[in-house]
Predict the structure of DUF3015 domain-containing protein.
Amino acid sequence: MQDYPLFQIDLELYRKIFKWILRMFNMKKLIAASALAVALPFAASAHAVSDAGCGLGSVLLEGQDGLVMNVLAATLNGTSGNQTFGMTTGTLNCSQENSLFALESYINDNLDTLAVDAARGEGETLTTLATLWGVDAADQSAFTAALQSQYGEIFTSENVTSADILSNMNSVVASDAALAGYTLS
């Protein structure tokens, strides 16, 4: 059998290459671990339960700090399904700004259907809007009637924005004696 020098294995060379690869791999692990050790205390201290949003988790874990508590609070908020209630009612550490955002988002997402229902003075989108607005069931018919009668003042143009619609609706509610208590601040 013929001896081919190209295919001969120099074991010592391979050992040196293998050791060098291990050293480089360990160096990368050392750098990554160092970076993590430096950054982790800052990341953990930057998270408070308030970062998890509003809801049951933020109420139950109020005053607890740390990344783990933040994740737990966000998980409770998400799985208990109560953030919509909190934003609508202003409870569960949800501020009024969140309620206004929820109303504006609802108007924006349902703009065309809401315009049709407001013109008719009835419909599911108006009922849902009244509920999100916080209007009692007994006053919802007055709410929908006011929006229907002032349709031109609410939907002022084809290019009206959801923020403008919310502001116009709030003006209509404020000017109606029976609904003035539902005026948004």
In short: The chain has two domains: 10-80, 95-182. The CA atoms of residues 12 and 166 lie 78 Å apart. The longest helix spans residues 11-46. Residues 95-182 form one domain.
